[in-house]
Specification:
The protein is α/β, with parallel strands linked by helices. The chain has an eleven-stranded mixed sheet with strand order 11-10-9-12-8-13-14-15-16-17-18, sandwiched between helices. It has a six-stranded mixed sheet with strand order 19-20-24-21-22-23, sandwiched between helices.
Length: 501
């Protein structure tokens, strides 16, 4: 169990104001007062809907022996006072946990789409190369062979959790930690004090403008990962096929660079002679270490690009080319990505996490190519308290590429779900789609799926987009249990499919 005195935690930070007994020893750190145990340091972080300072008294009542805050520190209690606790937390947490990123290799994977699939491919390749791994990302947190509860729905957790997970990985003899590095995580200091050995970017398209305001600021936040690589002499793996990804090259000028491409013959890592099929893809992987034929059991050209990215990361980690090829040939589906729901119905039902205009475009185009003779029906929504400018773009994409669109709730949070749906529908109407014909608006997600299933004809394909693996729908402060694939199965059963007799 780590422990440290307040003096030890802030020894390199003369700008901080301190009060109380600085020899006080803390045996844990928390920013959620409900998780405080006796002996902990409570860190009060202002957030979007809650301010940690309002919970200082609760933390003290639960046994906190000191606080780190921007204000409102209780008189007589040892305190660290910082101008910005979110920015101060990473170095304090890294000190408390013994700077674990210096004791293992850390891989950061960023991008608007494809982070999770690429992370899973990288993880499988490294493990097939007999390397112990850990992962922190959208679907789960894994420390070697153990899965950690991960209910926050943050792809990149707060810096305190990141440092804690890395310490647990070091203690479990993990050699490589794979972190999904979101723009929020980079911009909000969650990945400060992490030394990255390898960083990769899949693409940088349209997302999170509610936070970053402009595409330029969004790209700038992604660039932080590559500046860290430059500072540490790490390796950057960059997609030459994407304009936003190519922008990362200017931030990676001090690092080793490996480029990959499906299209550009000058890239270090390429796919040649690509053959796309209904059950996967075959292509020649061309690398600086030689070439190998890949039979990838993941469908779609975008997964060929994800495989190239994963291969680049693995090459940077010194994994042999044959191990990379053999591992990609055995790639397993990622939870909630292109998951088929089959209860014997005469139409196809696919669950996928696609929730941006770019990812929705890729998935709908793929399903159209795999289902040229049937209609394509799409159920989708857009998250509340997130980028509003992408909503009409998603509606436009769905109306153009699907025959029938059903717009519904995703995670409304503190917004009116019907207003969100109307904003999506405006994009569909803009390209000529008619409500009640080419598109429908249904607030209740279960009823939206029910409508899509009822409209399906033999040979059609239904895409349920946006929730994927997620286990809740966020309404205000409430996380209502949700299982997209489970709901689809229930409704198909109600329609009489999958029932004997």
């Amino acid at each position: 169990m780590p422990s440290a005195t307040l003096t030890e935690l802030v020894s390199n930070h003369p700008e901080l104001r301190l009060s109380g007994d600085l020899t006080t020893r803390v045996t844990g750190m928390q920013y959620d007062s409900r998780l405080i145990a006796p002996g902990d340091l409570f860190v009060a972080i202002p957030g979007g809907h809650f301010d940690g300072h309002a919970f200082i008294s609760d933390a003290v009542a639960r046994g906190a022996v000191a606080v780190m805050a921007e204000r409102d520190a209780p008189e007589g209690l040892p305190a660290i006072l910082a101008a910005d606790t979110r920015q101060t937390l990473p170095p304090v947490a890294a000190t408390f946990f013994g700077r674990p990123s210096l004791e293992l290799g850390v891989i950061g994977i960023t991008g608007t789409d494809g982070k999770t699939t690429t992370s899973y491919l990288v993880d499988a390749i490294l493990r097939d190369g007999e390397l112990e791994t850990g992962m922190v990302g959208t679907v789960s947190v894994r420390i070697a062979g153990s899965i950690v509860d991960h209910e926050t729905r943050q792809t990149t957790p707060e810096s305190l959790d990141v440092q804690r997970y890395l310490r647990q990985m070091v203690d479990a003899d993990v050699q490589w930690a794979i972190l999904e590095a979101t723009s929020h995580g980079l911009d909000l200091h969650r990945l400060d004090e992490v030394r990255f050995a390898i960083g990769a970017v899949t693409n940088v398209t349209h997302e999170h403008l509610e936070h970053h305001k402009t595409i330029e600021s969004y790209r700038r936040a992604k660039g932080i990962l590559f500046e860290r690589l430059s500072a540490s002499g790490g390796t950057a793996v960059v997609n030459l096929d994407d304009e936003g990804a190519r922008e990362m090259l200017k931030y990676a000028c001090g690092s080793n660079v490996l480029t990959y491409s499906v299209l550009d013959p000058v890239a270090d890592i390429r796919a040649a002679d690509i053959v796309l099929g209904v059950s996967g893809s075959r292509f020649e992987l061309v690398t600086p270490q030689g070439s190998a034929w890949i039979d990838l059991p993941l469908v779609g050209g975008f997964n060929v690009a994800n495989a190239l990215c994963a291969a680049g990361v693995a090459i940077a980690a010194a994994v042999p080319l044959q191990t990379i090829a053999d591992s990609l040939a055995c790639a397993s589906p990622v939870p909630g990505r292109m998951a088929r729901i089959d209860l014997g119905q005469p139409f196809t039902v696919i669950v996928d996490y696609a929730h941006t205009p770019e990812s929705l475009t890729k998935v709908l185009q793929l399903l159209r190519s795999l289902n040229p003779d049937g209609r394509l029906l799409a159920v989708s929504g857009s998250a509340g308290d997130r980028d509003t400018t992408k909503r009409p773009l998603q509606g436009e994409v769905s109306a153009k590429l699907a025959d029938v669109s059903v717009f519904t709730t995703e995670d409304p949070r503190f917004e009116d779900p019907d207003i969100i749906i109307d904003e999506i529908a405006a994009g569909a109407a803009r390209v000529g789609a008619r409500r009640g014909y080419e598109y429908h608006c249904v607030t209740d997600r279960r009823e939206a799926i029910r409508l899509a299933l009822s409209l399906a004809r033999p040979g059609d394909c239904i895409l349920l987009a946006g929730k994927g693996h997620e286990r809740s729908i966020i309404w205000g402060h409430e996380k209502r249990p949700w299982d997209e694939a489970g709901v689809a199965r229930e409704l198909l059963t109600e329609l009489g499919f999958g029932v004997r007799g």
